[in-house]
Description:
Layout: H1 3-12, E1 24-35, E2 38-46, E3 57-58, E4 61-63, H2 71-83, E5 90-95, E6 99-101, E7 105-114, E8 127-134, H3 135-140, E9 144-150, E10 174-183, E11 186-189, H4 190-203
Parallel strand pairs: 1-7
Antiparallel strand pairs: 1-2, 1-4, 2-3, 2-8, 5-7, 6-7, 9-10, 10-11
GO molecular function: coenzyme A diphosphatase activity; metal ion binding
Pfam family, one: NUDIX
Keywords: Hydrolase, Magnesium, Manganese, Metal-binding
Amino acid sequence: MDSKSIIDKGKKRTPEILGNENFSKYAVLLPLIEKEDGVHVLFEVRSYELRKQPGEICFPGGRIDPEDKTEEDTALRETIEELGIRRENISSVFPLDYIVSPFGMMVYSFAGFIDSDVEFVPNPPEVDSIFTVPLNFFLEEEPRVYRINFEVQPEESFPYDLIVGGENYNWRTRKVDEYFYIYEDKVIWGLTAKILSHFIEVIR
């Protein structure tokens, strides 16, 4: 292969996250609603019939389908399906940072406003209930942060003889911070709380 073909190939590509084709990709919307006492954040309680994370608190969202033109389209489609509203009920949508989780998942998040007079019809197979929390609560309340440490455990056949240090190799361990917000009897944690904390940083 000559230098020109290498340069041509290199210049034509757009860099992405290495290995991202193997990631599960999702998109969520952080819904905001203007109420009499100010802006509120809307949350869903996941159906208790769901196989994954039943009863947990989350934002509307789901897996990106091949038919979705953009990540934002996914977030809006899922919000419409889960809350039983129409596209015209959602406005002023803007992107937040996306998350690459240590568990092979990419989450694209957006924030946007939902009409204050809309009538919600939550989809029972996915959504048990919905509730809102005043935005001021999150502006005034810092999240509780707890660290999770992951241990390195190579498989039995790992070739220690091929690396410097062998079995005594000094592995870099992974650490993940888990965020928690406690509002009345509601526990908002995990990726939902992390996205929420990031959103608060953005609007501050």
